[in-house]
Amino acid sequence: MSIICAGLSCLDLQLVGCTQSGSEEAIERYDEAVHCAGGSASMTGTTLALLLRGDAESEEAQHQQQQHVHILTKIGNDFAGTTLLEFYRRAGASSRLVLEDEGVRTSMAVLPVYQNGKRGCFVNLASNDGFEVDELLGQVDAYFDGDGGDSTTPIQPPRAFLFGYPHLMPKMQGNALSSMLESVRQKLSLDGKNKVLMGVDLNGVDGSDADAAKAALIPALGQIDVLHLNEDEAAVLSSSKSSDENDNVAQDVVTPQLLSQIASFHEQGCAVVLLSLGSKGSFVSVTSDIKRLQQLSSTDCSTMAMSQWAPGTQVRVPAFEISHGDVNANGAGDAFVLWILLGC
């Protein structure tokens, strides 16, 4: 089993425990400053690698683990890029598909994590701005090249390819995103001989330009097996309002407008929509198109399970209550979509 976590990456500086007075010019305080590997490719890749690592302490066991999680992104040859590679190594993820370009700067972000668990984000997208489809496809081609070792065991296609934050990557939006996903599927499935789940994860879509967000995503829906977005992002795409964060958890927060938008995603070819609702849980919607679901079938346990989901199923899942400890939701969505892609 292996997975490729591709898309946006950045070196995050989290300011944990930030105060939030409400004034733009106020001097705010924080408890701790922490660097971490940020962006979809980094967060999903390192999260999965840490989950799979278990007790793999020997060098051989760690090497075998790195055959499972591959991060595909673009960075510069600078402090931030070197730090990201070290984070990947420590987590146990393979970085052999990472494109290092001396002509660009690695993206960096500052994330104030407030005392209520919410967060802000200030980012320079840098290397992500110029990440081209052809560059990504070249790295995908390298997947079957191996790591340069002496093993004669054929490299198996990955279980899934997850691409994160296309709305923040100008070279991979709209028709370009669609053609990229189609090409990746063809390459990794060995021209249809195997099935590879194709996932897309959104993050940070806001109402400042809903039309641009729609233009970035909608043309690619037919190539997306699993789409993950949160309540606010779905509301932007549907031009509706998300529910108040203080709503009772038991209240039905999946509005008719959101249901209509999800139905539109299915109509345009997306098989499964994952809607994360924060403290209110999540909502999973499956296409009613039986033939579309059958396209996910495989001998692999994850894709087989998904292809056998009942067509048209919509399930609301409550959140786990956290009764103690600090709350830091950074990376929660990345872990959520991984759980679905891995299937069990």
Quick synopsis:
With 344 residues, this protein is of the alpha/beta class. It is 31% helix and 20% strand.
Structure explained in plain terms:
With 344 residues, the chain is of the alpha/beta class. The protein is built from 11 helices and 14 strands. It has helices at residues 40-53, 59-65, 79-91, 133-141, 175-188, 210-217, 231-238, 256-267, 290-294, 301-307, 332-342, and strands at residues 3-7, 10-18, 32-38, 69-72, 74-76, 99-101, 108-114, 122-124, 160-164, 197-201, 226-230, 272-276, 282-286, 314-317. Strands 4-1-9-10-11-12-13-14 form an 8-stranded mixed β-sheet, with helices on both faces. Strands 3-2-7-8 form a 4-stranded mixed β-sheet. It has a two-stranded parallel ribbon with strand order 5-6. Helix 3 (79-91) links the parallel strand 5 (74-76) and strand 6. Helix 1 runs parallel beside helix 3 (79-91), helix 4 (133-141) packs parallel to helix 5 and helix 7 packs across helix 8. The chain starts with a strand and ends with a helix.
> Whole-number radius of gyration?
20 Å
Principal-axes shape call? globular
Strand order, largest beta sheet: 4-1-9-10-11-12-13-14
Percentage of residues in DSSP E strands: 15-25%
- Overall mean pLDDT score? 83
First CA to last CA: what distance? 12 Å
> Count of helical segments?
11
Structural class, by secondary structure, is alpha/beta
Uncertain segments: 244-250
Task: Give the helices and strands as they follow along the chain.
Answer: EEEHHEEHEEEHEHEHEHHEEHHEH
The main β sheet shows up as: 8 strands, mixed
What is the share of helical residues?
Answer: 25-40%
Number of strands: 14
